[in-house]
Design brief:
single chain; alpha+beta; Alpha-Beta Plaits; globular; binds iron/sulfur cluster
């Protein structure tokens, strides 16, 4: 599962470029996630989107909502 913190999203659109079937942007440019598409998306692509997010707005969480990885874990 992928979680987005829209307060951190800077509207770069990187996630949409990497995985357009899952990520979109609203009229303000902020990320929107298609939760249904996440279930069938390529996990490597989702993780790539998380790692490339310049706003550190995306994180991978488990089914209980605990964070597994986040863009801000980059070194
Ligand atoms: S890559 Fe990050 S900052 Fe850019 S639109 Fe997606 S969630 Fe927002």
């Amino acid at each position: 599962m992928i979680r987005a913190d829209r307060y951190r999203c800077c509207g770069s659109g990187m996630c949409v470029l990497i995985c357009p079937e899952v990520f979109d942007q609203d009229d303000s440019g902020l990320v929107v996630i298609d939760a249904d598409a996440v279930r069938t998306a390529d996990l490597a692509l989702l993780r790539h989107a998380v790692s490339c997010c310049p706003g550190q707005a995306l994180s991978e969480v488990d089914s209980a909502g605990a964070e597994k990885s986040a863009a801000n874990e980059r070194k």
